[in-house]
Amino acid sequence: MSTSSSLWNRFQQYFVRYPKLGFSIDISRMAFEDGFIDSMAPSIEKAFAAMKELEAGAIANPDEGRMVGHYWLRDSSLAPTELRAEIDGTLDSTLKFAEDVHSGAIKAPNGQKFTRVLVVGIGGSALGPQLVAQAITPANPPLAIDFFDNTDPDGMDRIVEQIGAELATTVTLVISKSGGTKETRNGMLEAAAAYKAQGLDFAKHAVAVTGVGSELDKYAIAQGWMTRFPMWDWVGGRTSVMSAVGTIAAALQGVDVRRFLAGAAAMDAETRTRPAKENAAMLLALMWYSAGKGKGLKDMVVLPYKDRLVLFSKYLQQLVMESLGKEHDLDGKIVNQGIAVYGNKGSTDQHAYVQQLRDGVNNFFVTFIEVAKARDTAGFEVEPGFTSGDYLQGFLRGTRKALAGSGRESVTLTIPEVSAFTLGLLIGLFERTVSFYATLVNVNAYHQPGVEAGKKAATDFLKQMASVIGALPAGGATAEALAAQVGIDAEDAWQMLSHLAANGRAKVTLGATPAADSFAKV
Ligand SMILES: O=P(O)(O)OC[C@H]1O[C@H](O)[C@H](O)[C@@H](O)[C@@H]1O
């Protein structure tokens, strides 16, 4: 990768485009040797074979004994026969629901049309709808959208305050595949309380998207919610944006959902059968492998040069890190796999962390996303002969060159514009890349056992907090003494007592050290 003519040749060799989709991938600035792809042939074959089985309904998630069916959501004809009607029917009914909300056939209890949607969900049950809302909704969508995607009460208070009296015409989607996620349960209860405070009946504004028979599903039935849509165990949260999880909010916001699905289906079709050297998903998986030596040694920095795609790095962060970040491989060997993903957008990031990318520790590769069309409206020249869009391209190309000049690797993906179709296409591309890469490094991409450890520790912490509150004396005691009394760790006790004190639920007299602080009942 030295002279400009050899770079031009390398570009020709490693540039693949799908003209029908307006999509291209350029891996010429990755530092693999020319024989690399051929040398990976046996692994590539294995990955293609595993994908074929997965798409045919194999138990591709062995730990949970589940099929992996997100690829069927955009082409139900590939799904096992018994699932097809349910996939199509659910899609139709989510779109019909949105249509009825728009037309006023489904109204708010006050007789007016719904004007806003509040999504309560977290992780895979929020990131997809958030990305869609940011990237492909009209500037002034038919319904404005807000999210409760955390159990931060202050965050929720701010949203409720912003919505104000419009809560009367707000439909709330509570989204949880498992139906038991605590943050989402809390968000739902907080939302219900906010409606109640305005004299509104939450049930008449509430819609559930969840697994049939889940805690949430039962609750929604018992409370008489507006309606419910199903989630299936064969769709993982992080790949659920094309199920009801993503389609309802998208449709309510005026997104052409069928085009969104068609984009993913089109990328699936391109990358399902093409041989490795012209297969964008396989090439990307091979680049991840080459950059990180199959061990995730290099982070992936996602740099879309387009404001609308600012959440794409966050979306990929969950998709990639929750799928690939695994302690064990499929043979039970300890491997501690994964690829760290971060990023924001260009050229904004050039004024922040790109300094380190150019000059600092070389522990990453960049994925540039270039959008060919600069804007929808007529061009405007910021100086004679140049538009803002020319600058955006200049900064992308300049950064790619500057990085390559100091031995930093990058992949560049180009799409014609940001639309429902091209967002679907990008999501489809990365989903298949994750599936391929998982086989290359022999991990199960479809479970997330590590997430459970933090959840269990949080549950224990809350149980212990209850016993500490019960033991708080009127006269004051140290954290250590209270911890010994209820049989818990002294630091945990101090942390929860400090939290209680900060929120007016305990009194604290600070000592010289945490051990000398004294806590009492209020
Ligand atoms: O949709 P839910 O069941 O509420 O799950 C929400 C999220 O939380 C879990 O902890 C998982 O790690 C995520 O993959 C999932 O998307």
TrEMBL record:
Example GO molecular function term? carbohydrate derivative binding
Q: Where in the cell is it found?
A: Cytoplasm
The record places the active site at 322 (proton donor), 351, 455
Q: What class of enzyme is it?
A: isomerase
Q: What keywords are annotated for this sequence in UniProt?
A: Cytoplasm, Gluconeogenesis, Glycolysis, Isomerase
Q: Which domain of life is it from?
A: Bacteria
Q: Which GO terms describe its cellular component?
A: cytosol
According to its UniProt record, what is one Pfam family this protein matches?
Answer: PGI
**Keyword Transport in annotation:** no
> Which CDD domains does the entry link to?
SIS_PGI_1, SIS_PGI_2
InterPro entries listed in its UniProt record: G6P_Isomerase, Phosphoglucose_isomerase_CS, SIS_dom_sf, SIS_PGI_1, SIS_PGI_2
Its Gene Ontology biological processes? gluconeogenesis; glucose 6-phosphate metabolic process; glycolytic process
Pathway(s) annotated for this protein in UniProt = Carbohydrate biosynthesis; gluconeogenesis; Carbohydrate degradation; glycolysis; D-glyceraldehyde 3-phosphate and glycerone phosphate from D-glucose: step 2/4
Reaction(s) this enzyme catalyzes, per UniProt: alpha-D-glucose 6-phosphate = beta-D-fructose 6-phosphate
Q: What is its main location?
A: cytoplasm
Q: Report the EC code(s) recorded for this entry.
A: 5.3.1.9
What the entry lists under NCBIfam families is as follows:
PRK14096.1
Described by its record, this protein's role is as follows: Catalyzes the reversible isomerization of glucose-6-phosphate to fructose-6-phosphate.
Which family does the similarity line name? Belongs to the GPI family.
- Which HAMAP family would you find in this protein's record? G6P_isomerase
Name of the featured protein: Glucose-6-phosphate isomerase
Q: Which organism is it from?
A: Brevifollis gellanilyticus
